[in-house]
Structure formats: structure tokens, C-alpha cells
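User: Design a sequence. Structure:
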């Protein structure tokens, strides 16, 4: 589209502190961090892009905070002179991802044709990137070692402040961290129905399906979520009750400084898995 893209810096404790100061107390850790990122961009760019994603179709809902994100953020920074952009995905009302992105392009001054061309090119690149991620994960599955499957949303597991310390610690301990949300999405969504035919949240269904597809190929599973995520709280409880025969650790990140307690729990979890593997051998 010819736009210069400005990214906020990697998440730090300062990002969370800034976001927590302006967010509602009931906001989840991810939303507090998000608002901290937005605040760091105020005055640094012409527009700040904030998506609004309600659903991807019937029985394909997203967290309500995804739907309210644009309104919440714009209201939080209503006294600033910052301009905001959004793309509105609500398939139930006929607003597909494609139409949302085309409308975004037109709002930036591009033609409908050029906007559609840019979306198609970006979608192609995204699909290729995803295939490469799946390929890399399959290579990790084939390596010898202790395989740990992490079940978390991408914005949690990929965040330098939330998820990265966990995957880094596992790697340093000689384990091989894998992701439940990396795989063939269509297969994962279909597989999730066997465990919960009524779960309405698309991203959680991907994780459920991923767990079912990988659980016999890994040595342990970590359920990782950001406090107080309502969808994760329900889904993780379901997983803990329904899955058996494999060690599982439920970790809820609350933003407290320091990782000593977290590392202690991870260390104990890995020790249990090593003990089980020794018994089998």
C-alpha cells in the first residue's frame, strides 16, 4: 500500500505498568499490555491501526475484547489528538476479512482494485509463512529429546514479556518447546469438535484441536494463559478434566515482576516428566 509502518517496541515491565495505569482493573493482562503499546505510539505516527474482529462466521466467535478493542482504545485516548484506523471483521453481518481490508485501503486513499490486490498479495505471503512455521514445527517433532507442547494464544506465547521467558527457560533446560496453535488450522478446528462440540471461540478451538493432534507425540503439555482470560479459564478447565495420561501444567500469568516462582514450577514439571520417562525405560 506504500505506507510506512511504525511498530511499537518489544514488551517490557514498563509497557505493562503504563497500560495498567490507564486500563480498567478487570482488563486482562494482554489488554493492559496492548494499551501500553498504544500509549507508546501516541504522537509517533499519523494513524494507529486497531482491528475490530467480532466473528469469522456462525459458531466462530472471538473473545469479546477483540470486538470492543477499537472502541475501548479510542475512548481511553480520547483526549489525545491521535488518529486511529480500524478494519471491521463481522462475517455474520457480511463483513469478511477481505472486505474489511479493502475498506481499510480505500480509507487510506487507494482504489478498490489496488486495495484488493494488496490484500491478495499479503494473504499469499501470510499463508506461505504459516506453511513454513508448520514445517519447522514438524522438524522439531522429529528431533530426539523431551517435547513440551505449549497451549496458548499467539499474542501470549510470542510476547517477549509473557511467553518468551517460558520457551527460553524450557530450551535452556534441554526441552523442545512446541506450539499447539501451529498446524493445519482446518484439521485442528475439526478435531476440536470431538472434545467440545459447543465451544464457540475460534482461537480456543484451534488450540483444543492442536492439543488433540499433538498429545500423543509430546511428553507434556503446558496450558498458558493471561489473567483473567475468561475463555481460557473455561477451556483450560475442560482440558484438565478431559485429558488424561499425560503430564499437564496450568500456568496463569498475572504480570507480577520476577520469574523465580514460575521457573520453580517449570523445573518441577520437567522433573516429573523425566521421572516418568525413566520409569518407561
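Assistant: Done.
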Amino acid at each position: 500500500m506504500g505506507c510506512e509502518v511504525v511498530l511499537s517496541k518489544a514488551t517490557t515491565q514498563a509497557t505493562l505498568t503504563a497500560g495498567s495505569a490507564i486500563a480498567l482493573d478487570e482488563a486482562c493482562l494482554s489488554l493492559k499490555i496492548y494499551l501500553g503499546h498504544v500509549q507508546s505510539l501516541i504522537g509517533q505516527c499519523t494513524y494507529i491501526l486497531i482491528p475490530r474482529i467480532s466473528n469469522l462466521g456462525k459458531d466462530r466467535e472471538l473473545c469479546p475484547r477483540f470486538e470492543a478493542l477499537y472502541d475501548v482504545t479510542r475512548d481511553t485516548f480520547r483526549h489525545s489528538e491521535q488518529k486511529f484506523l480500524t478494519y471491521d471483521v463481522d462475517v455474520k453481518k457480511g463483513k469478511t476479512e477481505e472486505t474489511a481490508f479493502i475498506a481499510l485501503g480505500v480509507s487510506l486513499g487507494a482504489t478498490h482494485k489496488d486495495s484488493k490486490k494488496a490484500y491478495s498479495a499479503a494473504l499469499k505471503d501470510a499463508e506461505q509463512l504459516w506453511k513454513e512455521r508448520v514445517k519447522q514445527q514438524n522438524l522439531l517433532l522429529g528431533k530426539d529429546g523431551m517435547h513440551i507442547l505449549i497451549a496458548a494464544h499467539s499474542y501470549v506465547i510470542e510476547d517477549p514479556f509473557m511467553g518468551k521467558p517460558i520457551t527460553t527457560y524450557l530450551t535452556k533446560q534441554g526441552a523442545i518447546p512446541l506450539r499447539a496453535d501451529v498446524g493445519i488450522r482446518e484439521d485442528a478446528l475439526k478435531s476440536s469438535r470431538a472434545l467440545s462440540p459447543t465451544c464457540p471461540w475460534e482461537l480456543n478451538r484451534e488450540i483444543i484441536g492442536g492439543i488433540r493432534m499433538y498429545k500423543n507425540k509430546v511428553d507434556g503439555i503446558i496450558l498458558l494463559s493471561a489473567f483473567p482470560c475468561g475463555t481460557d479459564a473455561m477451556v483450560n478447565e475442560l482440558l484438565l478434566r478431559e485429558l488424561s495420561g499425560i503430564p499437564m501444567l496450568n500456568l496463569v500469568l498475572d504480570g507480577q515482576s520476577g520469574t523465580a516462582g514460575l521457573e520453580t514450577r517449570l523445573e518441577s514439571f520437567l522433573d516429573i516428566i523425566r521421572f516418568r520417562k525413566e520409569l518407561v525405560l
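DSSP finds eleven helices and eight strands in the chain. The chain has a mean pLDDT of 94.
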